[in-house]
Amino acid sequence: MDKYVLITGSSSGLGKSAAQKLAQEGFKVFAGVRKQEDKQALEQLHSNIIPVFIDVTSDESVNRAFEKIKEHTDKLFALVNNAGVALAGPVEYIPVDILKKQFDINVFGAIRTAQKALPFMRDIDDCRIVNISSMASYGIFPFISPYCVSKRALDMFFNFLTLECKMPNLKVVSIKPGVVSTPIWNKSVDASLKNLENLCEEGKKKYAKEFDFLMKNALKNTEKGLNPQDIAELVFKVLTVKNPELSYNIGKDSVFARLMSYLPVKISNSLVKAGLKNRIG
Ligand SMILES: NC(=O)c1ccc[n+]([C@@H]2O[C@H](COP(=O)([O-])OP(=O)(O)OC[C@H]3O[C@@H](n4cnc5c(N)ncnc54)[C@H](OP(=O)(O)O)[C@@H]3O)[C@@H](O)[C@H]2O)c1
Q: Counting atoms of ligand 1 from 1, which one is nearest the CA of 86?
């Protein structure tokens, strides 16, 4: 029997790689997109890929996507909550609207999609929700706090789902990649530069050096990270092993972030501050 998987945010990066890998392995993949040209590109990628328009911040869009899915099946084996953006800014000055936007996509979007997906999962023996979280979930990256906190919140909400949900057939998994070379970094720089323009003069001046460092580092990440295919392989593993772990780290930087999270906050804060001072001055 066909196994259907929905992946949100499949236009590029990890989502696109995962859609291609799963399609090649025989899954039927509903690949979430927001633009016509991305739909066409995905249709060409593999015949097992069925693009669906889905903006995770909109009830209407998510409802429509599931109506489309229902035209094919009423049983979903897995949801991969992958859609995401990374927004940056100093807590002292960042406009609250940016925090809301960050949460709207990375957190509420994933919950909204999962709430619609769960009824499609109830009557099958084994089903999975895979969240593409991040090493950012460990909360040790100053100036990208909106992103870090959104990933922590995502992990916490879905852990509560695991504790509460009366579906023994459901396995919820968090994948926490380190840096991966995808368009997210360029997009994040563009968005952050816009945010910076919106900061008050005092904020701009006070954090100019840190922002400059952050932007340069983000641009480096477009090249120095893991290959998105590495994450696609891991998504495939998580969907095919009998008993997946609750959480996976992928990338040395992600393992390092996890180890840091075992330290008392006082000590990890000192190490992070020393690291920042060393790199920024
Ligand atoms: N790259 C990394 O280093 C890294 C590391 C750890 C975790 N991650 C996570 O991996 C996931 C994928 O990111 P990526 O690196 O592959 O970046 P990406 O190439 O920029 O992909 C992000 C995807 O999310 C989609 N998206 C954004 N807003 C959306 C919305 N409102 N509704 C539906 N889809 C939306 C984008 O669609 P459009 O093209 O239409 O904007 C795109 O398909 C994210 O959750 C990210 O946090 C990435």
A: 47
Query: Among the atoms of ligand 1, which is closest to the Cα of residue 185?
Result: 1
* Ligand 1 center to 58 CA (angstroms): 16
Residue 273 CB neighbours (<10 A): 11
pLDDT, residue 128, reads: 98
pLDDT in tens, 130-147: 999 999 999 999 999 999
Q: Closest residue (by CA) to atom 20 of ligand 1?
A: 184
Cα 14-18-19 angle, rounded to 5 deg = 120
83 C-alpha vs ligand 1 centroid, how far in Å? 4
Q: Which tens digit of pLDDT belongs to each residue from 153-205?
A: 999 999 999 999 999 999 999 999 999 999 998 888 888 777 777 777 888 88
- Identify the structural domains of the chain with CATH numbers, from first to last: 4-280 (3.40.50.720)
SS3 state of residue 248: strand
Q: Name the token pair of 96.
A: 């609250």
- 91, two tokens: 């807590």
pTM: 0.96
